[in-house]
Design brief:
Strand order of the largest sheet: 2-17-8-1-7-5-6
CATH superfamily of the largest domain: Alkaline Phosphatase, subunit A
Number of helices: 18
Helix content: 25-40%
Structural class: alpha/beta
Largest sheet: 7 strands, mixed
CATH topology of the largest domain: Alkaline Phosphatase, subunit A
Length: 414
């Protein structure tokens, strides 16, 4: 459900609508920053998965944060981009094998994890690979301002280029495992082998590029068997692409889910002895209708633009960078305009509430927006001129709602 905002009455050049008196006269209380459902940092978030597995293999400097995961000598994480817990549970017919794992019927976990904020690919992959929350690893959004240059940096595409290990200096869990004598490997698309995001988030051991999902499953199983202790990561992206382009209930998305289900089963049936396969995702997704009520266009909204120097993040998780001296005014305006549709916080409020984790590294602080807006309804803040491709997406993610935050943690053991 969306909530009407009185801002339309102030838009110049068009007549003001006459909302129902009950709505117009009611005082809209902005959502409390503390009412946002926090990710379960430290006990049940994506950042806790690899450290838990590595601790079970005796890797120094790691700790078991997810208590119910039994140690295994060989661990494989299969991350399916865009497969939310809620979307999986809503499609049992398309994913019979994955559905069989939901209720722990095979002795596994069958539970959700929280992605972390924002629930977006670059942030989540860095959380997975480093074992750190966003406030520490420093990839806190789809696009964020680089304090050294003052321009927006796309952390998924790594544009403009920035020295990767200056931006994210911590070692990955794979690197720690490799140094401890664990056989570490990543099996993914060849496209990702030398990307900066891979280097800062998922490197360590050996990267193997394979084009087809089937080849990745077969090779992942072989890499698991290659060591007495193994930590293997594999990845599939196309489900997320189908959701963005066509929506998470489209025939195309359903077809991709059926394919993913077969891939998971293929890998599960090849597990070598003493292995655990963990199936998870980087975020969920929800479809947002194409109308002005659900898609608020920053580029056409003079109130939201006032005092804003840069608009970062993405439609459901915005970093807003104010011109010098305007941060308080921008915060006040965004709270008034967005009413009950977004959690709107100042940078310090979001940090204090723990949105980005229990700590914020000094180098990360200024990357966060002066104002941070996280959607709670099925709405977006699009930017039709600045971000035409992103603004045209059907499926979206980024915020702290269950549809976006909850991702599966399913396991199969041999």
């Amino acid at each position: 459900m969306t909530h009407p905002s009185p801002r339309a009455a102030h838009d110049p050049g068009r007549p003001a609508p006459t909302p129902p008196d009950a709505v117009w006269d009611a005082h809209i209380e902005p959502l409390s920053v503390d009412s946002a459902p926090l990710p379960e940092y430290g006990s049940g978030s994506l950042a806790d998965l690899l450290p838990t597995l590595a601790a079970g293999m005796g890797v120094p400097g790691t700790a078991a944060a997810i208590a119910e995961l039994a140690p295994a000598d060989r661990n494989c994480v299969f991350l399916i981009d865009g497969l939310g817990w809620e979307q999986l549970r809503a499609h049992p017919e398309e994913a019979p094998f994955l559905t069989s794992l939901l209720g722990s019927s095979r002795g596994g976990t069958g539970r959700p994890l929280t992605a972390g904020y924002p629930a977006t690919t670059a942030t989540s992959l860095a959380s997975v690979g480093t074992g750190l929350p966003p406030g520490a690893h420093g990839l806190p959004g789809y696009t964020v301002r680089d304090p050294d240059t003052g321009v927006l940096m796309n952390q998924l595409r790594w544009q403009p280029w920035t020295a990767p290990h200056v931006w994210q200096p911590y070692p990955t869990v794979f690197q720690r495992a490799h140094e401890a004598g664990v056989h570490a490997a990543q099996v993914s698309s060849p496209t990702f082998e030398n990307t900066p995001l891979t280097k800062v988030a998922l490197s360590g051991g050996t990267f193997h590029g394979r084009l087809s999902g089937e080849d990745r499953m077969d090779l992942a199983a072989q890499e698991l068997a290659a060591g007495d202790r193994s930590l293997v990561y594999t990845y599939y992206a196309e489900l997320d692409g189908a959701g963005h382009r066509y929506g998470v209930d489209s025939d195309t998305w359903r077809g991709q889910l059926m394919h993913v289900d077969r891939l998971v089963q293929r890998l599960a049936e090849q597990l070598p002895p003493r292995s655990a396969l963990y199936v998870t995702a980087d975020h969920g997704m929800l479809d947002v209708p194409f109308d002005e009520q659900h898609r608020i266009d920053f580029d056409e909204d003079w109130e939201l633009r006032a005092g804003v120097a840069l608009l970062g993040g993405e439609g459901r998780a915005r970093h807003v960078y104010a011109v010098p001296g305007a941060a308080n005014d921008v915060l006040t305006c965004w709270r008034e305009v967005l009413g009950e549709q977004f959690w709107v916080a100042s940078r310090d409020e979001a940090i204090a509430a723990g949105w980005f984790g229990p700590r914020i590294d000094e180098r990360v602080y200024a990357r966060l927006g002066d104002v941070i807006a996280a959607a709670c309804d099925d709405v977006l803040i699009i930017a039709s001129e600045r971000e035409p491709k992103e603004s045209a997406m059907v499926g979206n993610h980024g915020s702290m709602t269950p549809a976006e935050q909850l991702v599966p943690l399913l396991d199969v053991r041999s």
